[in-house]
Amino acid sequence: MTAAPVTEHAVISRLRGSGVEVDASERRTSEYAYDASNYRVRPLAAVFPRTVDDVVATVRACADTRTPVVSRGGGTSMAGNAVGSGVVVDFSRHMNRILEIDPGAGTAAVEPGVVLATLTREVEAATGQRLTFAPDPSSKNRATVGGAIGNDACGNHSVRYGRTSDHTVEIDVVTADGARLTATATGLRATDPDDRASVLRASELSGELRALAREHLAAFRLELGRIPRQVSGYHLQNLLPEKGFDMARALVGSEGTCALIVGARMRLVPKPTSALLVCLGYDTVVDAARDVTTILEFSPAAVEGTDKAIVETMRWRRGPDSVTGLPDGNAWLFVDLDGDTREAVARQADELLARLGGNGRLVEGIAVADPEGRANLWRVREDGAGLSSRLATGGESWPGWEDSAVAPENLAAYLAELRTLMGEYDLDGVMYGHFGAGCMHIRITFDLRTERGREVYREFTRDAARLVVRHGGSLSGEHGDGRARSALLPLMYSPEVLEAFAAFRRAWDPEGLLNPGSIVDPAPIDAHLALEGVPDRQWRTSFDLQPVGAAETARESGRDAQPDPWVHAVQGCIGVGRCRADSGGVMCPSFRATRDEKDSTRGRARVLQDMVRGAATVAEGWRSHDAREALDLCLSCKACATDCPAGVDMATYKSEFFDHYYARRLRPRSHYSLGWLPRWLGIAGRIAPLVNAILATPLRGLAARLGGLTPHRALPRFARSGQWRREVDDTARPALRTGVPSQRPGVLAPAGAHVADAPGGQDVVLFVDTFTRGFRPEVAGAAARVLAGAGDAVECSADVCCGLTWISTGQLRTAKKLLTRAAAALDDGSERPIVVVEPSCAAALRKDLPELVPTEQARRVARRVTSFAAYVASWAGERHMAPPAAPVPGRAVVQTHCHEYSVFGPATQRRALAVAGVAEVSEANGCCGVAGNFGFEVEHYDVSMLVAETSLAPALRAAAPDTAVLTDGFSCAMQVGHVDPGARGLHIAQILDPGPAATGPQPSGTA
To answer: Is 999 exposed, middle or buried, given 0-12, 13-18 or 19+ CB atoms closer than 10 A?
Structure first.
């Protein structure tokens, strides 16, 4: 473009004058300055069209003002083709409808913002599981149809189903000059035959493109479409006469450089009736690649691979039980076999294993028929991009050369030479990808923060491009070229083909306004790198955020570990966008409620990344209003710490930021009312009857307003001080008559206390937290009875606080004092488990304690901490409990507790119910919406109810009348009672409670 750029104000004014939803705030443009690539380009604004007319108005305003336009779906591009300097058009927010599913025609009509997994799910439901939508990239639960068309995405089952272009029937587009056209398998037409301008544009464009194909017949036939995953460049072989002038397929993979996709008709395929996963272990990825040609003889639906670095990182981040069932080896292939019957598929699996065993490279292979087992193993592969970014070893890896592809028969030789090349540059890589299609996703340990590291990145990438071309391959296999590889296309294609690419783009977009920099006229691959130019400053934090392996890195490099721990932490988000998924896991409840990028973990992280980059000083950064706004709807649920493949812990970052932001500032009233709740409970407990009486009058509304609380929620009843003690005393009274003071202040122990003769019994500390003491004292008694009834000698502790309410509101000086006291009180020299009644408090003691008080004493205590449900779950098959006093319910709805899910494992509550003997369990897998103080705050009430509607409320409505509701967390119990006053949330201890009359060992004291 040669014209001088117009002012930002003029472009935005035109858009607003057209009635288009546009946001040009600094916070919003930070959110859209990144995708999942190495690049950062701040746009002028983000636009959120609701209709095709909005899209037409947008492109016309941008054309008149010479403003670039970038299309965006889920924002998960790893090549940098979803960022740009002009207007970013986000189709995922509103244009996300499935317009029609036609089983007879085998097609679905969709808007571009439809999420791939949503389309698949809806197609299967509408056709009785007969048909499905096949493309399934690992990002399928947040990537959109428009994005898949833009990149020609493939997915795990591309061996069977090919690329998105193989499933595209027609595409509706808006061109840079506002024409509305439809690309079909035989050409171009005006979407509306009565639109004369579009009819003329379709005719002119068709003529230009037919002439282009005639001019380059030989080059297109010789250079394009040679291997299954040749995605680099434009797919101009589809313009050839033998391809029928297939304009729809020619547009697929054009990365938004030719037109904006506003609709599509996608082809559906039959869904296999039976499927089985064969998991194969190898010593190396090269050995695995050598067996691919044998595997392909069995017509698999998928042949995917990963190496041990991803598996180790998943176990490190999510616990050893997060990856189970893998065969022995250091690299694995996941082979999906399918067919008409289970027996036929099983026979095929046996034959495959026998053949591979004969090849001599297979270490071990297993067949997995169970759907849940298959899903768990597939998740290892699907989370590869994020898991490989921050490794268990402490290293980092980045995209850039993450999408190369060769013919499957050449894969082993290519990988062997690529590993040698990486060694020459002193680089390491995490290898995973679509082995059956010859496409490798390799994240490499580039140092993009230093000039020398960026020089290595440039030189290695060019050498790697030459290598893949020597092996007859493609720079890109499904991610597109974008900013990462477009400048390398001259290494792959002849000047004639490159000129044809430029002519194709000019025909569609003469001014070059659509996604400039991709495929044609690219910038250097190291321009606009996100890690370049971040100031080297020290951001002092209360949390210990030192990355794993930092000390070793410093010793090896001879310099201080870089970057600053706070900067390193917030840069953990690499943009894969799993926080935008509406299914699987718990993250991110606020995004699931609002569908706004601002309210996703990724959006918040991007604002924090721009904070550390752009603030004039550290002090100014900590006072960022943009960051405060971005963090406002974070529920501090901690789910992202587990669900985010990159391990982003936004609850911790919010707490740290709030601590600085509100330093020497007046805080929201709820930070004093709820943030200081343990202090108020100490007072209210002494006059609980009076407080409860007042809260039963209209004065409750005044109290709520004074505390910054919503008037729409009933406040909980306060328990009398010491009531929890009486609950436990009633259980322990016979033993306590002979009690003598222990050496720990405030704790009694019976003379001659001992562990019971019950199998597996041990000494435990039952930590009775503030919430249990102040609101649910009956749970303390139930918990003590359950533990004693299972053979444990129980000592109760309630003389310290975990500081949770101060942590969640970012009052970290007080939190550190309380946690320091807790560590000192609980560090008794033993290894006794510390069993905590309230899961949030257990999580605070397990995770926040060692991060806020980084001492060996704190770490010793944290290692001993477990939630009550996690402790019960550990009894499976090993312990005998006293029979519950009430019949165990036959079915239960579990409101997944976010903190317990994150810190103690996703299946903790389900496993505890299995120990209890509950046969039928349905899980409300999502945050309840209250999340401590969040749902009680007046400004957050509406969102808290929207969060409840994503999982909890539908589960309660679907439950049978006799279904128990498990709510180990006090916040969860409050939300259940609010959403469904007829339901009563129970703690697992109440379900298992043997009652006061139960025999067996008794608690050894109270505090």
So the answer is: exposed
